[in-house]
Amino acid sequence: MLKLYNTLSRQNEIFVPLTDKKVKMYTCGPTVYNYIHIGNYTTYLFSDLLKRYLLHSGFRVNDVMNITDVDDKTIKGSSEAGSTLTDFTQKYEQTFYDDLKQLHILKAKKYPHATHYIKQIIKLIKQLEKNGFAYQAEDKSVYYDISEFESYGKLANLENQNLKTGAAGRTNSDEYEKDNVGDFALWKAHNQADGDIKWDSPWGPGRPGWHIECSAMIMKLLGDQIDIHIGGEDLIFPHHQNEIAQTEAITEKQFVKYWLHKAHLKVDNKKMSKSLGNFFLLKDVATENSGVMAFRFLVTTSHYRQPLNFTRESLQASAEALNKIYNFVDRLNIANGSDNQLEKIERLITENVKQFELYMNDDLNTPNAIATLFTFINEINKYLDQKQVGGKAAKMLTNHLKQLDKVWAFIFTRKKVDKNFEQRVETLIKSRNDHRKNRNFAEADKIRDELAKMNVEIKDEGEKTHWTIK
Ligand SMILES: [Zn+2]
C-alpha cells in the first residue's frame, strides 16, 4: 500500500485516489522567461518518478504541467528583448521540452499555457467577486480578500497574523491599494510597463495574476477536485495556499487531496544563484559522459523531502555508480554460463521486487530502494563470476531490470554512443584482432591502449570482442 507525505496534514497518508484507480495529478511547471535551471528539474524529476511508480502500481495517471507564459518576468524579459511575448517565451519552452526528453521524463498528458486560459480565468474571478471573495481596488486591479477565507494559511501552517507579509507573492501592484497587505492580485490592471500585453475584462484591460492561472487550468482540465498537486517547496506559500483559497471559495469542495512538495536543491551546500556563480543549466551537467543520466540518478538517490546537495563530486560519484549498473547489464548480455541456479536466481528476483516496493510504498524511499538494487547486483555478480548465469537466467534478470527501469529510467536510457565513434571503435578492434591473429601482440596492445584512452574497455570472449564505455 502506497503511503505519501501530505503537506496539508503533515503526515504520511495511505494513497487512495478520488475515483478507483484513476489519478489526477498536477505539477506547477516552469515560467518560461529564461532557461530552466537544474533546481527546477529536480521537481519535475520527482513528479516523473511518482508518476512512474503510480503506473507501476497499477494506477492510471492523467497529469498536467502548466507553462507560465505571462507574468511580471516574462513581460519584463520580452520588453527588454524587444520581441513579442510569444516569440520571447517560445525558445525557452522548446529548450524545456528538449531537456525533459534528455532526462527521460515521461510526457505529461497536457502542457497548457496560461495565455490560452484567459476566458476561464475571467470567469473564475467573476465568480469570486459574486461570492464575496474579490474586490476591485482604486488601481483597477482585482484582489482576493484573504480575510473571507477561513482556513487561509492552513497549508503552510501559518497563523493569520503572520500573513501580513509575503502573501502577495509575485504581484507588483502598489500595496496601499489593497484592503489587507496579504491580499493578492487576481487581475492586474494594465500599466505602462506592460506595453501591449493586455486582455479585455469586465474590470478593464489587464492580465491575470499568477496564482489564478493554475486554479483555472486545473479546474478546466482536471476538474474541481484532484488527487495530487506537486511543486517545489518554495511554492507552498503563498502560491499553493492561494490556489486553495481561489478554488475552494468557488467550489466549496476540497481542492487537492494530497499536496506533495520537493525540497530545495543546493549547490556546494549553498543556495543556487547566479550571483554566487553556482547556477547550472542541464547542458552544464550534460557535458560529461552520461552526465544527464548521472544527474537523474543523483536526484533519485536522495529522498525528495531532503534537500539535495549538488556538487561536481556527487555527479561524478553518480556516474561511477551508474557504470556499475551498466557493466552488470553488459555482463548479462554476454553471459554464457550454465543455467543450473535458475530457481535461486528467480527467488532473488522476487525478493528484490518485494524490497523495491516495500521502500517505494514508504513515501518513495528511493535511497533505500536503490540500495537494494546494488545489493542485488552484487549478489548476482557472484553467480556471474562462477559462470552460473546462462541464457535463461540472463534473460530473466534483464527483464527484471527492465521492469524496475520503467520507474528508474536510468538503466536502459544509457547515453547512446554516436555512430562515428562506434565505427572508429569497431575499426580499431578489427585491426587489433588481425594483429593478434598474426601474433603481432605489440601492435595489438598499442591499439588496446588507444581504445583505453577513448574510455573504451574491451573484453575478449573466444573469437568475439565486446566493448563498453568506461
Ligand atoms: Zn501553480
From TrEMBL:
It is an enzyme of class 6 (ligase). Residues 355-421 form the Cysteinyl-tRNA synthetase class Ia DALR domain. It comes from the Bacteria. It catalyses: tRNA(Cys) + L-cysteine + ATP = L-cysteinyl-tRNA(Cys) + AMP + diphosphate. A motif ('HIGH' region) lies at residues 30-40. Keywords: Aminoacyl-tRNA synthetase, ATP-binding, Cytoplasm, Ligase, Metal-binding, Nucleotide-binding, Protein biosynthesis, Zinc. ATP binds at K274. GO terms for cellular component: cytosol. GO terms for molecular function: ATP binding; cysteine-tRNA ligase activity; zinc ion binding. SMART domains: DALR_2. Its cofactor is Zn(2+). Belongs to the class-I aminoacyl-tRNA synthetase family. This is Cysteine--tRNA ligase. The gene is cysS.
